[in-house]
Predict the 3D structure of the following.
Amino acid sequence: MRDLKVVEVEIRGMAGYQVQGLYRDCSDSFWETVAHDAVFRDPVRAERFLEKCRGRPSWRWDWQHWGRPADHLPSDADAIQRSVAVYTVL
């Protein structure tokens, strides 16, 4: 995982902020955009969550909460086929 950042998103008409980054499933795959399920109303809260993500080694992440961003158009070339769950803004 690299280039983690907070991105402004709109989900079901609600504006929010989500942690997204680039992930490569294996050495011969493309870098793909992944996002965390949580969407925050306040960018400050999203930044705090981002710092938590950066402080944890990737082998300790709960990968069931990471997936393709909600607005991603799937492709057969994608290694990550699951989209994030669409929750309301926290």
Remarks:
- The chain is about 15% helix and 35% strand.
